[in-house]
Write the structure tokens for this entry.
Amino acid sequence: YIIPVIIIKHNIQGTLSPRDLESKTMARIITALLSVGTATAFLGAPLPVRPAVSTSLRAPSTRALPVPSRSMRRVREAARDATVMSASSFKVGVVGATGAVGEEIMGVLKKRGFPVSELHAFASERSAGKTLSTPFGDVESELFSLEAVRAMDVVFLAVDGDFAGEWAEKIADGEDGPYVIDNSSFFRYNPKYPLVIPEINGHLVKKSKLIANPNCT
């Protein structure tokens, strides 16, 4: 079985800008949560193999196929969950929507065909009330509040570490809290929350509603 593995490394030659890297990482995180595309990748479908031409008259081997490993079974379970979730639509909140990272997140959501039923763009008091042109149409930015953000199904934090440290856990708290994907570096080394690379450990999204993004803002 073939499982795609993504290796994230520094772009020494500068062929990709930080914004390009951000887009790629957010696409993977989004896809790991809820898209059928990554579900297909998680399944580890074998590549088609051209049958070898036998040069002998011996009967074909009847040896049993190897039993999938525990890690493979876990990956497949994550794929099934992602497939089921992808059939729904979600209220999505982007905190920091008026910044470059927030704009990129909304672009990736649209590009990947993420099932957005409602898009809410949360901003600071200075930026709230502005009309934003997004891939989903014009959206009026809303003043951030804990109550409003917790009404979402999925929340992307395109904010700095201080803001994430103050609010991320409060947003995701409890059974009724939304999934929170933090794009800052605040939780990356906190063992309590998974640092998710979908092609490697996407199954961890089932264990925590607060997820750290391995790329930098």
